[in-house]
Amino acid sequence: MHLEQLTGRADMHIHTNVSDGIAPVHQVLDHIARHTHLNVIAITDHDRLDASLWAYEHRARYPFEIVPGLEVTTREGHVLALWVTQPIPRALSLKETVAAIHAQGGIAIIAHPIEPTIDFAAARRHLFDPAGLINSEIDAIEVFNAGAFTPGCNWLAQRVYQDRGITLVGNSDAHMPSSIGSGITRFRGSTAADLRDSLANGWTAVEGKRWHITTYLKLLRTGIQWTLSASSRAKLPSTHPTPL
């Protein structure tokens, strides 16, 4: 499909301060409305649905469509779970995670598959065993991540997966509002339903540019604080049967 036919613009990988982003969800959504031309977005905090469900509940306020979701931490990398409204447990295998997403009628997208600074073992496996990743029944692969830290990992992901019959997507992985839309998926149509149809049929193209170095520096302090906070929470007895 020609690029001019892919008129929709989606960013399906955005964080808020519910996980390791810096801004609350309402500020994120206001920024998108005022400063971007996105048609569809998803708030995908790490293993938390709070902000995403708030955004989805208030979606009528905004001039773009909102897909509920989260970024799930698996034993084999991170997965964007879209069109889901119930928690997905952490630390399952990739295949178990994909099955849990599909059980909710959701779409599973592998995030930053060859970024070694996030999960070296998973990145190595996704680079040298692409068939194994595809056989997990993943629906799409994020081959452009604007926040990818390692030079060349986006290029490698595109080279490895571009001719394997799997849908390819791009996202910003924004952790601050100014980065939203720095990576996008172009798709046919303009609605969330159109996006889902395009993901199912491979009617996508990726575009964008990496974050500026100053963005990484601004986020460094926030990331360290969030990691320390997450570590402290992990040592406390859980009051939830399933982690949010």
Provide an overview of this structure.
This protein has 244 residues and is an alpha/beta fold. It has one domain: Alpha-Beta Barrel (TIM Barrel), CATH 3.20.20.140. Helix content is 34%, strand content 21%. The chain contains eight helices and ten strands. It has helices spanning 25-35, 50-57, 94-103, 120-128, 130-134, 153-161, 192-201, 213-234, and strands at 8-14, 40-43, 65-67, 69-74, 77-82, 107-110, 140-145, 167-171, 183-187, 204-208. The strands form two sheets. The chain has a five-stranded mixed beta sheet with strand order 3-2-1-9-10. Strands 4-5-6-7-8 form a five-stranded mixed beta sheet. A hairpin with a 2-residue loop joins β4 and β5 (77-82). Residues 234-244 have low confidence and may be disordered.
What's this entry about, in short?
With 244 residues, the protein is an alpha/beta fold.
The coarse overall form would be globular
The DSSP helix count reads 8
CATH homologous superfamily assignment: Metal-dependent hydrolases
The biggest sheet, with number of strands, parallel, antiparallel or mixed sense and barrel status, is: 5 strands, mixed
**What portion of residues is helical?**
25-40%
CATH class: Alpha Beta
Strand order of the largest sheet: 3-2-1-9-10
Kindly give the count of domains: 1
What class, by secondary structure content? alpha/beta
Q: What gap, in angstroms, lies between the N and C termini?
A: 39 Å
Secondary-structure element string? EHEHEEEHEHHEHEEHEH
Determine the CATH topology.
TIM Barrel
Rg, Cα atoms, Å: 17 Å
- The count of β-strands is 10
Q: Beta-strand percentage?
A: 15-25%
Please state the average pLDDT score: 90
